[in-house]
Each structure stands twice: as C-alpha cells, then as structure tokens.
Amino acid sequence: MSQQQWNTVDDYFDSLLAPDDEALHAALRDSEAAGLPHISVTATQGKLLHLLARTQGARRILEIGTLGGYSTIWLGRALPADGRLISLEANPTHAAVARANLARAGLAERTEIRVAPALDSLAQLVAERAEPFDLVFIDADKPNNPHYLERALELTRPGSLIIGDNVVRGGEVADADSTDPSIRGIRRFLELIAENPRLTATAVQTVGSKGYDGFSLARVND
C-alpha cells in the first residue's frame, strides 16, 4: 500500500461519509492562511470524534489543543443545545483563528477557548471544581501527555471517555529505547492508562492522508 492509495481512500470516505461544508472548509482555509501547521484531524477523524461524542451523549467536552478549531467544530456540533465545550490552547494566534472559525460555524455560544499553557488551564479547571466532562480529547504536545491524563482523571466521572490522538507516530511508539520526548511521553501515557484500574482502554493504528498513526480510547470505569 502506498501513501497515494491511502489518500485516495481517504478522499473517497470523506466525500461519502464526511462531506465538507462551508464552515469546515473555511476553518482549514483560514488556518492555512494564518500559517498554522497542517496537523488538524482529517474529515473522517473529525466525524469519528463527532460520533463518539454523540454516542456518549456528551454534554460537556474538554479539548486539549485547539489549533484552528477544526476538530472543535466537529466536537461542538455533537453537543446538545445546552452543552458546553472548553478547548485549551497555548498559542494566542491559534486561539484567535479558532474563535473566528467557531463563530462562523455558529458555535460561539457553546464553546470557550482558554489561552494559556494547557497544564495551567487544567489546574485552573480543577481549582474551579469544574463540572465533570463526559469526553476529553487530548491532542497537544506529546511530552506532557502523562500530565494531561492525570488532570483528565480529576476532571471526568465514571463513564467518561478520554481520547488520545497521534499515539503511533509512524510506529515509533514501539521503540522502547527511543530518546524522542514525544515518544517517551506517549509511551508513559499509555503505560499509565494500562496500569490504572479506573480505566479500560484500547489503541488503534490508522493510515490515511495524515500518514501512519493512531489513537487511544479509554473509558473511566463505573
């Protein structure tokens, strides 16, 4: 299988199952125009997040890593009218682009972007005694994934889902001798999930237009 084949299949799935619309298209367009890195989830990955949130019946969603708000739109559209999504972004430029994208998608009233290092924002949410989140999507700097997991467990409830993106890294996650901080962070993140009796989890490898990667999915036990 080649990257071109993966791209062709992704294009087919996107057009059939996750078709573009103006808000999603504009979010990617304006993110690119603002010089944001091309690391947003794909359309089918966004649709998966959307379906997981809807299946979960999520009223409250926490996203760690906003970028231009593309995944935020997919998640925000899964919320009921009284739902709430809080997204954490360290880069003010990214946050400004995302806010504009969310407003254009009609989600400004249901979403909040907090601009600060994610660990600071997470500590603030804990200090605020925030109502538990039904779904947490972790998609930020990978060395801090173990710390994000620790905070996510403080901010969820039995039955909540915790999703970790980009956990395969082209297969490098299997290299126990890696000195790459991102690989080490992901491996520790997965080890902590496996060791924690409060969690039941799996991880899935994926291929597509973003290459070879994957995600983890953990449920907080009843």
List the helices and strands and how they pair.
Layout: H1 3-17, H2 22-33, H3 43-56, E1 60-64, H4 70-76, E2 84-89, H5 92-104, E3 111-115, H6 118-127, E4 133-138, H7 145-154, E5 156-165, H8 181-195, E6 199-208, E7 211-220
Parallel strand pairs: 1-2, 1-4, 2-3, 4-5
Antiparallel strand pairs: 5-7, 6-7
Helix pairs in contact: 2-5, 3-4, 6-7, 7-8
Number of helices: 8
- Give the strand tally: 7
Strand content: 15-25%
- Name the poorly predicted regions: none
Shape: globular
**Helix and strand pattern:** HHHEHEHEHEHEHEE
Q: Could you give the order of strands across the largest sheet?
A: 3-2-1-4-5-7-6
Amino- and carboxy-terminal Cα gap: 41 Å
Overall pLDDT, averaged? 97
The gyration radius over C-alpha positions equals 17 Å
Largest sheet entry: 7 strands, mixed
Helix content: 40-55%
Could you say which structural class the secondary elements and strand pairing correspond to? alpha/beta
Protein architecture, described:
The protein is an alpha/beta fold and 222 residues long. 43% of the residues lie in helices and 23% in strands. Strands 3-2-1-4-5-7-6 form a 7-stranded mixed beta sheet, with helices on both faces. A hairpin with a 2-residue loop joins strand 6 and strand 7 (211-220). Helix 2 (22-33) packs antiparallel against helix 5 and helix 6 packs parallel to helix 7 (145-154). The relative contact order is 0.14. The model has no long low-confidence stretch (mean pLDDT 97).
